[in-house]
Amino acid sequence: MTKTWLVAPLLALGFMAPAHAAPPLVGRQIITTATVYGNDPCPTASNGDIVVCGRLPEAERFRIPPKLRKHKAERTEQPWSARVATLDDAARPERPDSCSAVGAGGQTGCTAAMLRQWADERRANGQRVGIPF
Fold it and tell me: Which residue range(s) make up the domain with 40?
């Protein structure tokens, strides 16, 4: 009994929908878009079709579309070696020789950490890193 009072209004709404038909299709009209460059003519329409032309300068004819062009400033890619170094730095506190109180043998890595910092500072200043033999 309780379910019938929910279903009845929904059925009534279906019968109250407007009963107008879609307009008949007399002839299909085709709309074509085209990009033309420089002084090239726009394609002509036939049989009542519509042609919409966008005009670009001649210098853009053989270029990559602007949406697909990448500028050096926008690139966020980094070399694989830099990714590995980032992952190594992230995992370093949990490994031995990490110069921290966390993990097994963490206290033994303080000298290695000092040498890594020294090498990074020399590389940043453009100096050579290594032992001359």
Answer: 29-58
